[in-house]
């Protein structure tokens, strides 16, 4: 429909329908992911992943989104980044979810940094942002299903499943996920 519209009112309607359909599809995918996790039917398709190129691709993809939201997005990589054995689609989903959360909770003019480093034979991928922070009492439940900041439930869309799904995918890879945040 979008390619066929010439009337601006109809084009806006078609764009709205398209956005709503994409949002609905995303929510259905999240429910299916969560159901698969709960009944242990998720299968990882691991392969050797060029982590440096993988993170560069994500950075290129998200830089325009950040720019459109008046946010600064930076990729910081060390001189060498080890390859990893991972399900590229699932790890991409995790990182994009974390970046999108950073975008959602960072005010215009703010900064988001995607970086990686090695520690004790582990590859650590960090998303840092200049958002408002997460209260200490909320940090212990942030990775539970259906958890959202109480003050944002009306303002922001979402089901509160992204971080729970991300935690499961990271743990399926033998990794850990955590939050380190302070108010302000």
Q: Would you mind describing this structure in some detail?
A:
With 184 residues, the chain is of the alpha+beta class. Helices cover 45% and strands 15% of the residues. It has a three-stranded mixed β-sheet with strand order 2-4-5. The protein has a two-stranded antiparallel ribbon with strand order 1-3. Helix 2 runs parallel beside helix 3 (88-105) and helix 3 (88-105) packs antiparallel against helix 5. The radius of gyration is 18 Å and the shape is globular. The N and C termini lie far apart (44 Å). The mean pLDDT is 85.
Outline: globular
Provide the structure class. alpha+beta
Radius of gyration: 18 Å
> What does the main sheet amount to?
3 strands, mixed
Q: Low-confidence runs (pLDDT<50, min 5 residues)? A: none
Mean pLDDT: 85
DSSP helix fraction: 40-55%
Which percent range describes the beta-strand content? 15-25%
Widest beta sheet: strand line-up: 2-4-5
Number of DSSP-assigned strands? 5
Provide the succession of SSEs: HEHEEHEEHH
Helix count equals 5
Q: How far is it from the N-terminal to the C-terminal residue, by CA? A: 44 Å
Sum up the structure in keywords:
5 strands; 3-stranded mixed beta sheet; alpha+beta; 184 residues
In short:
Helices cover 45% and strands 15% of the residues. The chain has 184 residues and is of the alpha+beta class.
Can you lay out the helices and strands and say which pair or pack?
Layout: H1 8-38, E1 47-49, H2 51-68, E2 72-76, E3 84-86, H3 88-105, E4 111-119, E5 122-129, H4 136-139, H5 162-172
Parallel strand pairs: 2-4
Antiparallel strand pairs: 1-3, 4-5
Helix pairs in contact: 1-5, 2-3, 3-5
């Amino acid at each position: 429909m979008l390619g066929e519209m010439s009337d601006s009112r109809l084009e806006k309607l078609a764009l709205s329908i398209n956005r709503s359909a994409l949002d609905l599809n995303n929510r259905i995918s999240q429910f299916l992911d969560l159901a698969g996790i709960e009944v242990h039917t998720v299968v990882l398709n691991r392969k050797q992943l060029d982590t440096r190129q993988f993170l560069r691709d994500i950075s290129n993809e998200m830089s325009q989104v950040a720019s459109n939201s008046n946010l600064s997005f930076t990729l910081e990589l060390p001189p060498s980044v080890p390859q990893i054995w991972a399900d590229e689609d699932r790890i991409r989903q995790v990182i994009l979810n974390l970046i999108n959360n950073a975008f959602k909770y960072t005010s215009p003019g703010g900064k988001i940094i995607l970086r990686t480093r090695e520690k004790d034979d582990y590859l650590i991928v960090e998303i840092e942002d200049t958002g408002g922070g997460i209260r200490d009492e909320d940090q212990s439940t942030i990775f539970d299903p259906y958890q959202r900041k109480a003050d944002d439930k009306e303002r922001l869309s979402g089901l509160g499943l992204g971080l729970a799904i991300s935690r499961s995918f990271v743990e399926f890879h033998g990794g850990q996920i955590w939050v380190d945040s302070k108010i302000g």
